[in-house]
Amino acid sequence: MGSTASTRNGTWRNWGGTVLAHPAREVAPASVDELAAAVRRAAEDGLPVKAVGTGHSFTSIAATDGVQIRPHLLAGIRDVDREAGTVTVGAGTPLKRLNTALAREGLSLTNMGDIMEQTVSGATSTGTHGTGRDSASLAAQIRGLELVTADGSVLTCSAEGTEEERAVFAAARIGLGALGVVSAITFAVEPVFLLTAREEPMPLDRVLAEFDELHAENEHFEFYWFPHTGNTNTKRNNRSAGPERPVHPVRGWIDDEFLSNGVFQAANWVGRAVPATVPALARVSSRALSARTYTDIPYKVFTSPRRVRFVEMEYAVPREALVDTLRELKAMVDRSRLRVSFPVEVRTAPADDIPLSTASGRDTAYIAVHMFRGTPYQGYFTAAERIFTAHEGRPHWGKINTRDASYFSRVYPRFAEFTALRDRLDPERLFRNDYLRRVLGT
Fold first, then answer.
1. Can the peptide bond before residue 395 be classed as cis, meaning omega within 30 degrees of 0?
2. What is the CATH number for 110?
3. Which region among 8-22, 219-233, 312-326, 339-353 has the lowest average model confidence (pLDDT)?
4. Which of 151, 193, 128 lies closest to 43, judged by CA?
5. CATH of the domain at 383
6. φ, ψ of residue 114 in degrees (nearest 5)
7. pTM above threshold 0.90
8. Are 259 and 330 members of one domain?
9. Mean pLDDT in the chain?
10. What is the Rg, in whole angstroms, of the alpha carbon atoms belonging to the chain?
C-alpha cells in the first residue's frame, strides 16, 4: 500500500480516501521563481491555487478545482547553520528525508509526530504535532519561512523582521494554505540525542488516576486506549545518556510490522465484515503487544510505520479537561451500539503563541479517534465531536471535523488577527477552496 495520495485520470485522491479533487492543471515548480510565476499565471487566469503534499490530511484543506501546486521538486536541505542551530529545507521535503539527512549531519528536531510521510510544509501548515511536556508541534520549531503571496511576491519572514513580516511569521507557521504557498522553512535543530522509550500495557483507570504524574515525570508521554476494554498501551520517551540500544530487528518486525500492521489489519477486516466480533478483537489487540524498552535517536523512537488505512478525528482540549473528556468518551462508547476497532490516541503539548495552533495560549491534551477505512464512522465521530466541543475543543486542521468560522472565532482568541492578515495578503482569495470558506469564512 502506498504511503501518499494518488492522482489518476486527472482526479486527485487523498491518502485516507475521504477527498477527491479535479484540478484544472497541475504544476510542479523546481524553483521559487517558477512557483511565483505559477501563482501569477493562476491569478491572471482567474483560477484558485492550492499546494498539496502527500495527502495525509483527511479534510479537503488541499483540494482544488484550480491550480494544484506539487512541491516535490522544492525539496532537500538548502542550508545548515550550526552556529544558529537552524536548518533550511525546501517545502516539499518529506519528513522522512529531513530526519535522515539531519541524522547524517549529527542533528535532530526536538520533537515530531508519529509518522514521517508528510511534506514539511503540509505537516506544519495543518499543525502536525507529537507529544511533549515541554515541546510538541513542528510549527513551534519554525524559525523562518519563505512563501509566495497572492501577487506573486516572494516573502521571507521571521520573528526578527519588520512589523508586517513578524505578523506573517506568527500566523503562517500554521497558515492552512490561506496566506500563500510556502516554498521553504527554517527549523530550529539541536545536536542529535538519544531517547529511551518505555512501552507497557496499563489499565485505563490507573492511567487516568495518575495522568498528571505521568505527564509531569516524562518528557514525552502518550497512551492508546482500546474501546470496549479497560486496557491501554502507554509510551514514555525520555532523553538518555545511552548507550544506544535499538529494538532488535526481529522483535521490531514482529511488533511494528507483523502485529501492529499485519495482524491488526486482518483484525480490522474481520471487524468490518462482522461488527459483533469487534469487542473480542479489541481485547485481543490490547494485549498483543508486551512491554519493551529501547534507546535510539529521536526519529526512530518518535515515529513508526502506519500501513493500516483509517479515517481520523482529533480534538485538542485544555489539558486539565483531559480526564473528564476521556471518561465521557468511554461512557458514550460503552452505552452505545458502536463497534470501534481502532484505539484512541492521547497526547499532550505545552501552550504556544501561534494564532491558529490547537495549543495556542493553553496547555493542551489531544484525543484522536479513528475508524478503519471503509467502516462507517459518522455516528462515532459525531458523538465524539459533541463531547469534545463541550470542552471547548479545537479540531486538528487536517482531520475530520464539522466546525465553522463562527465556532473557531469563539475558541481561538486570535482568530480575528489571522483573518485580518488574510484580508491583507489575499484580498481576492486566490488561495480559496470550500474548506477554507467554511473554517475561515468568506
1. no
2. 3.30.465.10
3. 8-22
4. 151
5. 3.40.462.10
6. -100, 0
7. yes
8. yes
9. 94
10. 21
User: What is the residue whose three cell numbers read 459533541?
Assistant: 386
DSSP state of 442: -
Residue 409 lies in a domain: no
For residue range 103-133, list pLDDT tens digits in order: 999 999 999 999 999 999 999 999 999 999 9
Dist CA 219 CA 307 (whole Å) = 27
- 383 Cβ partners below 8 Å, 6+ apart? 332, 336, 338
Amino acid at the residue 355? P
Q: What's the pLDDT at 1?
A: 38
Residue 81 pLDDT greater than 80, yes or no: yes
- In a domain, residue 71? The reply is no
> Which DSSP category does 254 fall into?
I
CB of 189 within 8 A of CB of 108?
yes
On whether residue 407 sits in a domain, the answer given is no
Distance CA 131, CA 112 (A): 8
| Residue 432 identity | R
Instruction: Give the pLDDT confidence score for residue 310 in this predicted structure.
Output: 87
Give the amino acid at 347.
R
CA–CA dist 122, 119 (Å, integer): 5
β partners of residue 190: 108
pLDDT at 6 > cutoff 70: no
What counts of helices (H) and strands (E) characterise the chain? 15, 21
Last residue within a domain, chosen from 355, 372, 395: 395
User: Are 167 and 248 part of one and the same domain?
Assistant: no
Closest among 439, 419, 435 to 179, alpha carbons compared: 419
**251, pLDDT greater than 80:** no
Q: Please check whether residue 17 is in contact with residue 373, taking contact to mean a CB–CB distance below 8 angstroms.
A: yes
pLDDT(273) > 50: yes
Last residue of a domain, one of 191, 211, 227: 191
| Cell 498539496, residue located | 52
d(CA 175, CA 126): 7
Helix then strand then coil, in percent of the chain rounded to 5, is 35, 25, 40
CB atoms within 10 A of CB 393: 26
Q: Are strands 220-225 and 344-349 parallel, antiparallel or unpaired?
A: antiparallel
Percent of the chain with pLDDT strictly greater than 70? 96
Range of 276's domain? Answer: 194-296+308-395
Q: Cα-flanking dihedrals φ and ψ of residue 77, to 5°?
A: -80, 125
304: cell is 513508526
The string over 117-137, giving b where at least 16 C-beta atoms fall within 10 Å of a residue's C-beta and e elsewhere, is: bbbbbbbbbbbbbbbbbebbb
